[in-house]
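Two folds, back to back.
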Amino acid sequence: MKKVPENEIICADSIEYMRSMPEESVDMIFADPPYNLQLAGELFRPNNSRVAGVDDAWDKFDDFDAYDRMTRDWLAAARRILKPNGTLWVIGSYHNIFRVGSALQNIGYWILNDVVWVKTNPMPNFKGRRFTNAHETLIWCAKSQASKYTFNYEAMKALNDDLQMRSDWVLPLCTGEERLKGADGKKAHPTQKPESLLYRTMVAATNPGDLVLDPFSGTGTTAAVAKKLGRRYIGLERDEGYVRLAKKRLAAIPVASDAEAIQHTTSKRKEPRIPFGTLVENGLLAPGTMLSSPCRRHTAKVRADGTIISADHKGSIHQVGAAVQGAPSCNGWTYWQVKSDARKSVPLDVLRQKYRSEAAL
């Protein structure tokens, strides 16, 4: 197996190249394969101007069997190089996504979500014989059902104004300055995806330093976003013109050197466990400090061993919190409050986060 150059756009046939890569070496794959649009004839607007559709040779196949063979080949090669806990994203339209979905399930991938990219500015349906095609579908899947894949739930929630991220993503097409142009001033690639789309997939399913591969790299959108987010990347593209454009694009992007800026919100389950007694022994809370409930009906005193005591109960912050409420359980970190320096009451969790930050945990 060859040693794979990282942070490169490589001019090569993606299937052959992936077959030569080390097994289980990639954390995430984003694939934007040919859609096999099966276009017949030219399309014109009402003003008789020609629509610049996808009529490139790389999107043309003799029949569905030929397309299916290509799909099975690249999906199998991609699965071999995915790490056991790696994930794959593949995007398509109604022309191909159902065939791709069937193939990836047959090969052994485990589908996690299908995500609908709702385009805010889709191309109109000029003939008026069908609905305007205003969305594309992404399939997000793990290498297998047993994979312990990465999903940065809290980061996705933070991106969405502290609401759960849904599977319908409303994002515009790639336009304006983001759209790469050729020497003739026209769009360089017919299906260049917006960076916002790749940004969301990468923040959701990778961590800084992870290796992301794009087997149909085009003009390098996946690599560009990876570089901005501090991920390593490999782009595979057999068209030399697209490779040159991608390399020029990447050369203008600075390396993400601010390690703190590219970090994202992590799940509380992944944060280091901090016993309540740690706050006491490190002086963030003194023995005798009074805690109160949010409604101020219940109070408890902090003891030197990290337990607390109320009028009728003593034990951990969780046990006493549950007891005073007559509840089966209680998260004492968010239930109990303490006076802060500003004389305002804050949950104990604020002190826990302060300790984590100061101790660099």
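---
second:
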Amino acid sequence: MKVLLLSRYGHLGASSRVRSYQYLPYLKAQGIDVKVLPILNNDYVKSVYFGRNKPVFSILGAYLRRLWYIFNSHQFDLVWVEKEIFPWVPAIAEAVLSNFKVPYVADYDDAIFHRYDMNHLHTVRFFLGRKIDKVMKNASIVIVGNEYLADRSRQAGVRRIEYLPTVVDLEKYSGYQSTCHSNLITIGWIGTPVTQGYLQKIAHSLSVVCQRDWARVVLIGANNPQFQNVPVVIRSWSEETEVAGIQDFDIGIMPIPDDPWERGKCGYKLIQYMACGKPVVASPVGANTEIVKHGVNGFLAGSPREWLEALTILRDNPSLRRKMGVAGRKMVEKEYCIQVTAPRLVSIFNFAV
């Protein structure tokens, strides 16, 4: 089988890396030849994270290359679309594939449709508000990472919806630790400068938990967030060191607001924490409520008071941290790893063609 992968980002883009790129070795072993064609390269990702000028000419070049492949898509048995073919452009390319009788699967790990239907510009809402619904409806199969995205797919009239969570590769997380052995408890978070603002939601809770040097906060991938009375260590992110960095945590956290965009998130960092045997605390939003079994592998915390209670309990109870960490790791091994989902992805592709 020959597949054209129209990924969103280069390898630095987390969504593309975990939703498609990590599957490529397995797909190749199954005789599936994948041509990768990202629309936004690593320079674009760096520009978003670090406030640099966007590489306009390279983006334009990527649009043109992708356009050429669309009109030559008959060379492939299947097109694998991450979110949409051309951002900020009507769903014309997807309609072309349908007219060419080239099947495509559309994959979603966030609520990209809200970028258009909730845009502050009326013009964008008018011309693109239902774009992603059209992309979904024309697809042979829509792959979603959580129930919120599945609901939108059903509203769009999708014929076949497949649930495929965002997962980790157990081979990379094989040497997990159920707890750290240190007098200073580490509360950890991994993300990007774009999402570090979510941490402000629990800043006061962190300051109380960390008082008297009882705990510290380690942030991987953040860019100098402003906290008061919180001992913070900032570590740069790299694919090579992220697992070791998470293994140094005692508790993994994921605070997010209960807003439409966040309801579409797939809770990947929670999976990473649990794959490393760490208990978690997360906001009860979207996929978090499916991943976190309250009181079993972590806690769901909605208010600042609930965050403070959950973090304090875990800070003061190493045996509970260890027990929850083991439970989380077992769930990852059962449901949230490519060793489970990769064969399902192959089945999806075979059905689509």
